[in-house]
């Protein structure tokens, strides 16, 4: 028997790990007959161990997947006032079973989080807890968290390397920026870029050409030019967006969003210093737009940014009440790049 605990799982990473375990069952047509998935909130130790002890059908072993059980049991233990409660008896039952290598089936627990100070993790009345079971090789514990902004480029690079794909560092950064932590989409984009590169290293130009939703970076080019009062550069950025068939209402929405981020960042940095990761956490935005906003907001006083936001709202009203949308965007950009 192999025991697994997957904590705080990203659904894509979890799907990969479960896919590997299901594939290990052998014949894909027979595998579903040897997989049991249980709702841990509605199951007790007896239910789980009944499935874990069942004989596999025309296979070497079964796979038993239990979602939310340990966290639910931990919650029950937290409210128990007597050592002789059903929750404690159940905890003993499941910990004893996990410590027994004699069961031939694979048992997988999936939980969002567990408190490492509690009995299930540390141990109960002389029984090994999850931590000791891991150290003893009786339980594999994987934290399948979605990579944060700092870790995402490394995840992209490692995924590409694992799949035999060569990708330049700047292209990795662009993918992280354009796609974010959508791991499923990132995997698809890497596969698409591999086919396009046809054996050579994937370059930033490849990402720019093939990966959709690059408009946010172009929008920042536009707002950067506006902040520099560079009308020619701003119009080039605007026309680049239009070549990608950007809808004028979408453009206005995105420009407005960037200025809202600048206002948030300007206000937050006035309260205390920090890098883009610190500020991003405080204003609930991603590090890339925060880094851009930190640089661009230096071109403005806070009242100027608020005035621009009012101008953007008036453009929104004009476009919704009959003004030609493209002309209104042109006028807006021309006004915002004038010397103030």
Could you characterize the architecture of this molecule?
- By secondary structure, this protein is α/β, with parallel strands linked by helices.
- The protein folds into three domains: 3-143, Rossmann fold (3-Layer(aba) Sandwich), CATH 3.40.50; 152-210, Orthogonal Bundle (Helicase, Ruva Protein, domain 3), CATH 1.10.8.60; 215-336, Zinc Finger, Delta Prime, domain 3, CATH 1.20.272.
- 59% of the residues lie in helices and 9% in strands.
- The chain contains 17 helices and seven strands.
- The strands form two sheets. Strands 2-3-4-1-7 form a five-stranded parallel sheet, sandwiched between helices.
- Helix 7 crosses helix 8 (169-179), helix 11 (215-227) packs antiparallel against helix 12 and helix 16 packs antiparallel against helix 17.
- The longest helix has 24 residues, at 248-271.
- The N and C termini lie far apart (72 Å).
- The mean pLDDT is 87.
Can you give keywords for this protein?
340 residues; alpha/beta; Rossmann fold; Helicase, Ruva Protein, domain 3; Zinc Finger, Delta Prime, domain 3; five-stranded parallel β-sheet; two-stranded antiparallel sheet; 17 helices
In short:
The protein has helices at residues 11-23, 45-53, 69-79, 86-98, 119-122, 130-135, 152-162, 169-179, 183-197, 204-210, 215-227, 231-243, 248-271, 276-283, 287-296, 302-320, 325-336, and strands at residues 3-7, 35-39, 63-67, 106-111, 123-124, 127-128, 140-143.
């Amino acid at each position: 028997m192999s025991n697994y605990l997957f904590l705080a799982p990203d659904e894509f990473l979890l799907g990969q790990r479960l896919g590997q375990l299901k594939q290990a069952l052998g014949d894909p047509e027979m595998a579903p007959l040897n997989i049991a998935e249980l709702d841990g909130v509605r199951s007790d130790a007896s239910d789980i161990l009944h499935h874990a002890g069942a004989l596999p059908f025309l296979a070497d072993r079964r796979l038993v997947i239990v979602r939310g059980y340990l966290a639910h049991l931990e919650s029950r233990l937290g409210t128990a006032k007597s050592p002789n409660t059903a929750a404690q008896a159940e905890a003993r039952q499941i910990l004893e079973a996990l410590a027994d290598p004699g069961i031939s089936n694979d048992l997988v627990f999936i939980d969002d989080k567990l408190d490492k100070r509690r009995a299930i993790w540390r141990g109960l009345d002389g029984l090994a807890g999850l931590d000791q079971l891991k150290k003893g090789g009786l339980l594999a514990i994987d934290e399948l968290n979605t990579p944060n902004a700092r870790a995402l480029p490394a995840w992209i690079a490692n995924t590409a390397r694992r799949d035999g794909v060569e990708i330049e560092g700047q292209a990795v950064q662009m993918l992280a920026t354009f796609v974010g932590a959508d791991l499923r989409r990132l995997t698809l984009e890497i596969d698409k870029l591999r086919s396009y590169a046809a054996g050579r290293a994937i370059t930033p130009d490849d990402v720019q050409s093939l990966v959709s939703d690059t408009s946010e970076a172009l929008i920042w080019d536009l707002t950067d030019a506006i902040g520099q009062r560079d009308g020619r550069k701003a119009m080039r950025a605007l026309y680049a967006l239009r070549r990608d068939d950007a809808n004028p209402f979408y453009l206005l929405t995105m420009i407005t969003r960037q200025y809202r981020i600048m206002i948030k960042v300007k206000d937050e940095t006035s309260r205390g210093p920090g890098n883009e990761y610190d500020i991003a956490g405080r204003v609930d935005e991603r590090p890339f737009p925060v880094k851009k906003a930190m640089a661009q907001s230096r071109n403005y006083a806070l009242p100027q940014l608020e005035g621009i936001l009012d101008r953007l709202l008036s453009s929104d009203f004009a476009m919704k009440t009959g003004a030609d949308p493209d002309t209104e965007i042109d006028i807006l950009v021309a006004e915002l790049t004038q010397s103030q």
